[in-house]
Design brief:
Elements lengths: L16 H5 L1 E2 L4 E5 L5 E5 L2 H5 L3 H4 L10 H11 L9 E6 L8 E8 L2 E8 L7 H13 L4 H16 L3 E7 L5 E8 L10 E2 L6 H9 L2 E4 L7 E4 L21 H10 L3 E9 L2 E10 L7 H46 L7 H9 L6 E6 L2 E6 L4 H12 L7 E3 L18 E6 L7 E6 L4 E6 L23 E6 L8 H61 L4 H26 L5 E2 H12 L7 E4 L4 E2 L1 H20 L8 E8 L5 E8 L12 H14 L2 E7 L2 E8 L4 E2 L34 E5 L3 H13 L3 E5 L2 H9 L5 E5 L1 E2 L2 E2 L1 H10 L3 E5 L16 E3 L4 H12 L3
Parallel strand pairs: 22-24, 29-30, 29-31, 31-34, 34-35
Antiparallel strand pairs: 1-11, 2-3, 2-6, 3-11, 4-5, 5-6, 7-8, 7-13, 8-9, 10-12, 12-13, 14-15, 14-18, 16-17, 17-18, 19-20, 21-23, 23-28, 24-25, 25-27, 26-27, 32-33
Length: 856
């Protein structure tokens, strides 16, 4: 089935340029004319047909040798040659005085008109009627396989060859016999594959220009063109010749197959060479020019019908894909959670593009449905996809060409189609196809189709056509061009959905936040105004009396305490507030010069707004009393501790020491009432106070319903004294070598905050690797396993939860950090993880690390 162009590089072929490049089959003769119809060159056998020696014709008008009527008919045909590769035909003409009929083919090659004559027969057949009948049978075929088979049957019925095959080219140039019609007893070639080298690239290019190639007898001796070369040492261009002889290489190829005559007709779809009608005969055969012309016309009609069928199938397929795309858009628009449901996505996407598994990668998070690679391999695939053309669908039937070591999961995932669903190449929906293990039947070993020989490796024919089986592994069914176009449509839809959901979510969040901020700001404003009015009334109403002035100061302090508590609550949108913040605020406001003498110890605790306001007054009274009469009036200290009971209640103890001797009050004042009755009355808890001469001792119990714990590290959150006094033994600072020899992965998107955390970790003796994005962190983890990690939850418009998933898989301990602190929103699989409130401090990192790693 292989042929080569006449314009072959002489350095890579037999040293017979005249024989190879300028020779025709001897069944007819050739005349090359100048534009003024002077004979320029002829075939060497012209005398056998016209009775004139070739040298006598060269340079003389053709009209000297053939009848005038034929010249007239030929001129009319030449006038119809309107395109460069056009060929006109003239049947049953008589170039000699005898009654012998010839069929003529006319075309233009450069500046010359080429006339080719071969013996013909007079016919009154209706060629158009024959073709109509043949096409009518084609149109009745129900599917494409039957369509191919009927095409082969019609060509064989018309031309009478022993075997007619429909030969289809693959994208890589290899071919497959997809249908055949043959006489019984000669075996079947259907399903056999042929390597691309069997039909070289230049031969395929020639098939597009000259659709019909005929070899009547492989044993014929070609006839040379006279003269072989023109004045410019150029052979005659026989690319469009119907009589042109073919390469000796191709003749040998056919002989190796046992074929003695062949004919091929090109099948062109969308202007490209789709395949061939390949006809073989096991004895010499020469269909008439008229029959060959009918076959060529049928092949053109077959090509158009094939193109129409493929186009209809494509249109119908893409219409269904658009319907699925609309369904996807409508469903997700009403339920945005569907976009994160891989099973639902798999159902809808695989109904448009067949696949065995679907994986979704969004903001470093992933989900799977069906047959997919392992998670670590999927991460490698995503990183490799980011290196491909951004913003385009990417498809391959061999994942091993994209990432290394793909054979470990090739059974479940050998091919993929990746649909980017974000503006940057970061988020994907990936469809996977499992391995297609198949035994490909080759006509000979495709890996050794040729041997080195005297003609060079490219032009030496293959000798063996014994059926050879190849087991194909590690590849899937390819994603064809139609499926990739559908994927582009789905990509546009998915991006539209993602952007729409993002816009809607952003708008809703913005609206809700603005409304909430407005309400809180208005509430805070009104409460502050009320408290300000009360303070003004109290201050303006006081007489010039020391006792009253002291009373006003006490009331003013209590109002300030309520105002500070109110601010703490409204800072978190009227939600629970930390107990430690309340103590810090009171110490800073009413014991500024003694702030370093107040020690607090206990786990991070949140009090609801009601409990927070009540405890603000209680702590205020305790602090002010101590600064006036207790340990804070001298050089003493105060220890304020709290802990959760087994039933969830919160127990708090206030213990003073080192101050002047304490005496029980002689009268029951309002401050004492607040201390003793606020927690029992307002919160349903208990309170007790003991005026021990060595220092006041108080104990409170707040019911569990008023108490909550933020998602932070377990263990005490310690506030160390800042001046004047040495730290309490239980508050000793962390050891400088606390993390000596340990490696830490720090994921933090703010450079300044990252530098601060690095300094703290370095002081503890750790070695640090810092990443600012999930992608950078994943790249680090490809070749490195840290001892533990600190993950900032919010990284710009991404989160660190995907990194957390991978660390969990690797068995690396870690804790989160967040500026939102206790209010950080964690997914279910990480809800038990510790969260450290930023900014980072020596103490919160030390405590979190000790708890996480079990350090002393």
């Amino acid at each position: 089935m292989a042929e080569i162009n006449t314009r072959v590089d002489l350095t890579n072929c037999d040293r017979e340029p005249i024989h190879l490049l300028g020779a025709i089959q001897p069944v007819g003769f050739l005349v090359a004319l100048s534009k003024d119809w002077l004979v320029a060159r002829v075939s060497g056998n012209v005398g056998g047909f016209l009775g004139v020696e070739p040298q006598d014709m060269i340079g003389n008008p053709l009209s000297d040798f053939v009848p005038a009527q034929l010249i007239h008919d030929l001129r009319n045909r030449v006038a119809l040659l309107s395109t460069p590769d056009a060929i006109e035909r003239l049947f049953a003409c008589k170039p000699t005085a005898s009654d012998a009929c010839f069929d003529a083919a006319i075309h233009v090659a450069g500046a010359q008109i080429i006339l080719e004559f071969e013996p013909g027969v007079e016919t009154n057949g209706d060629a158009s009627g024959s073709v109509r009948a043949m096409i009518a049978r084609l149109d009745t075929q129900p599917d494409v396989a039957a369509f191919y088979r009927e095409g082969a049957r019609q060509v064989r019925a018309l031309l009478g060859y022993d075997r007619v095959m429909v030969y289809r080219f693959a994208a890589d140039g290899a071919g497959e016999v997809v249908a055949e019609a043959c006489k019984s007893g000669i075996g079947s070639f259907k399903g056999l594959h042929y390597p691309a080298s069997d039909i070289p690239r230049q031969a395929r290019a020639l098939y597009k220009r000259n659709p019909l190639r005929l070899i009547r007898d492989v044993s014929q001796v070609p006839v040379a063109i006279v003269p072989a070369l023109d004045a410019n040492r150029e052979p005659l261009d026989l690319s469009l010749s119907v009589l042109r002889s073919v390469s000796t290489i191709h003749i040998e190829y056919l002989k190796n197959m046992g074929v003695e005559a062949s004919l091929s007709i090109s099948i062109l779809v969308d202007g490209e060479l789709w395949g061939l009608f390949a006809c073989h005969h096991y004895s010499p055969r020469s269909p008439t020019f008229e029959r060959r012309s009918v076959a060529e016309l049928f092949a053109q009609m077959f090509s158009m019908r094939l193109e129409s069928r493929e186009r209809r199938e494509l249109v119908e397929y893409e219409r269904r894909a658009r319907d699925i795309s609309d369904q996807l858009l409508g469903a997700v628009a009403s339920d945005e959670t569907l976009l994160k449901d891989p099973d639902w996505l798999a159902d809808i996407l695989t109904s448009a593009i067949p696949a065995d598994g679907v994986a979704v990668w969004i903001n470093g998070n992933y989900a799977f449905s069906g047959q997919t690679p392992p998670t670590d391999d999927f991460r490698r695939i995503v990183r490799a996809l980011n290196a491909t053309a951004a913003g385009k669908v990417f498809a391959t039937d061999h994942i091993g060409s994209l990432v290394d070591k793909a054979e470990s999961f090739s059974k479940t995932a050998s091919g993929l189609l990746a649909i980017p669903i974000s503006r940057s190449p970061r988020d994907y929906v990936v469809l996977f196809r499992s391995e297609m293990r198949e035994s490909v039947r080759w006509a000979g070993d495709p890996h050794k189709p040729i041997d080195y020989g005297p003609n060079g490796p490219r032009l030496t024919p293959r000798e063996s056509f014994a059926e050879w089986h190849e087991l194909v592994e590690g590849k899937s069914v390819p994603f064809n061009a139609s499926e990739q176009r559908v994927a582009e449509t789905l990509r546009a839809t998915l991006i539209e959905v993602v952007l729409r959901l993002a816009d809607e979510a952003a708008a809703q969040r913005q609206h809700a936040n603005a409304r909430q901020e407005l309400l809180i700001a208005e509430l805070n404003h009104r409460v502050r105004n009320i408290l300000g009015v009360i303070r003004g009334l109290v201050r303006q109403s006081q007489p010039d009396n020391d006792v009253v002035r002291e009373f006003v100061s006490v009331v003013d302090g209590r109002i300030h305490s309520l105002a500070r508590a109110h601010n703490q609550i409204t800072d978190d949108h009227w939600g629970p507030a930390p107990l430690q913040a309340l103590i810090d605020a009171e110490a800073a406001a009413f014991a500024a010069h003694k702030e370093s003498s107040i020690y607090s110890e206990g786990p991070p605790i949140l009090l609801n707004p009601q409990a927070y306001s009540s405890m603000a007054l209680v702590v205020h009274e305790l602090v002010t009393n101590s600064t006036k009469y207790g340990s804070l009036s001298g050089d003493g200290i105060v220890e304020f501790k709290w802990a959760r009971e087994e039933n969830g209640d919160l127990t708090l103890t206030w213990s003073e020491s080192g101050g002047p001797a304490v005496k029980a009050p002689t009268r029951k004042g309002f401050g004492t009432t607040i201390i003793k009755r606020s927690v029992p009355y307002d919160l349903g808890g208990s309170a007790a106070i003991d005026y021990d001469p060595a220092g006041v001792q108080a104990r409170f119990c707040i019911p569990a319903r008023h108490v909550s714990e933020p998602r932070v590290v377990k263990g005490p959150e310690v506030r160390l004294p800042r001046k004047n006094h040495p730290p309490h033994p239980s508050q000793a600072p962390a050891k400088p070598d606390l993390l000596a020899g340990l490696s830490v992965l720090l994921v933090e998107d703010s450079l300044i905050i990252a530098l601060d955390a690095e300094d703290i970790l370095v002081r503890f003796g750790a070695s640090i690797e810092t990443a600012s994005t999930p992608e950078a962190a994943h790249d680090m983890l490809d070749g490195w396993k840290p001892d533990f990690a600190i993950l900032d939850i919010n990284l710009g418009d991404q989160t660190s939860f995907g990194i957390a998933d991978r660390l969990s898989d690797l068995g690396v301990p870690f804790f989160f950090a967040s500026g939102y602190g206790e209010q950080a929103n964690l997914p279910d699989e990480h809800r038990v993880r510790a969260v450290v409130q930023k900014p980072y401090t020596t103490h919160n990192i030390a405590r979190a690390s000790e708890e996480l790693l079990g350090l002393d």
